[in-house]
Amino acid sequence: MTATARTGVKYTLLVLFLINFLNFFDRTIPAVVLEPIRKEFGLDDTMFGVLGTVFTLVYAIAGLPLGRLSDRLRRTRVLAGGVFVWSLMTAASAMAWNFTSFLLVRLGVGVGEASCAPAANSMIGDMYPSNRRARAIGLFMLGLPLGSLACFALVGWIAQNHGWRAPFYIAAIPGFILALVVLALREPVRGEQETYKLDAATPIDRPYRRLAAIPTLWWIILSGAAYNFAVYAMNTFLPALMVRYHHVGVAQAGLVSAVVLGLTGLLGLTLGGWIADKIRAAFPRGRLVFGAVCLLLAAPLLYAGLVRSAGDVVGATILLSAGWLLFFMYYVTVYPSVQDVVEPRLRATAMAVYFFFQYVLGAGFGSVVTGLLSDRYATQAMQEAGGGAITEAARAVGLQASMSMVVPVAALVTAVALWLAARRFLTDAASANRCVDPLCRASEKFGGERGAVTGNGGTVQGELQ
């Protein structure tokens, strides 16, 4: 690759990072301003959980056709259209006059944001070879913690000083700019980083049936559902937990959430991506095993942080940050593994299918189940206190009890699913590198589990005879 080409690839990755940054910034705003919206519209935690569930269902469903479009059309155009739509709907969120209007506008945000993951991940797969993808995806995924960090750090202050509507207007402006920038990007050649030749112009037949035949992908899908269950419980309710249970202001709750859910990702994704690629070089299925170990260690740390006594803000922040840092290792182990077991013409579709189940089963239920349990435990606390109405103190106890159950259990399920995915990885990675086109020059004879996936583009060492 020439110096000019390398510069172009780095610039494209930077633009994709900025889009992902804005994606998670815009998505996180409602969580930061949850309390003022709840009070103005007269909501309870179940209603906010429903808001998160409906948003994620629309996001997941819209991702399927957008994923197929990304495998058929120029991904830069699909991405530009998505950024424009979600930015427009973000601005419209500030105009909501009740819960229903706010819900409908946020659904528009979900449709636009559904274009980001399939198109961007597919582009990265065609920009970087397999042995460098974890680091590239780690840099792209820095948009998640940095977007969340910036949102939690800035939006709380903006809302406290200018009202909860102002952040939505401000966040929309860079989106319109990025929608124009992405149109000028070079469209990567599909399969450019693979070691076999691919007829990228010919549509692939039975795409969903092909994906359904990859066992590793199904275990990864299960891991994503469990992972997002915990993520959306934390993203939706951690600021509210800090306000209710630990008695801090909205701005301070935003800062704590920025540290736990954002700052930890800087180390988790950069260091994690480097470690994941190093482990893969020595141990082909090591990325997924590494992810499983990290999630297994994260569960007790998160539990310890969530059950800290009321008012122990420092202790809760330290423990939750340590657990969430390990939680962030998930992305750099799973996303490159999907690229390794799926051939280039199906990668956007595979990511869309993965995100469909991740959001329908995980994010779709994570926030609403946490909200339902919170209200149930709050009612129970009220009855035990002998009161006739649910007090703010009861709501604090209910939310703390709910989160301390949901988040650690989801982390453990994620760890188990990643371990099971690792057991099937070598066979499915070998199959993905098989001759799938008439133009493929590689041999069709492959070895089994003893082969090692190494080299650029996922070459299967010892499997080509």
Automatic annotation (TrEMBL):
Main location: membrane
Signal peptide: none
Transmembrane domains' residue ranges: 12-34, 46-66, 78-97, 103-124, 136-160, 166-185, 216-234, 254-276, 288-307, 313-332, 353-373, 401-422
Membrane topology: Multi-pass membrane protein
UniProt domain Major facilitator superfamily (MFS) profile: residue ranges: 12-426
Subcellular location as annotated: Membrane
Keywords recorded for this protein, A-Z: Membrane, Transmembrane, Transmembrane helix, Transport
Keyword Calcium listed: no
Name of the protein: MFS transporter
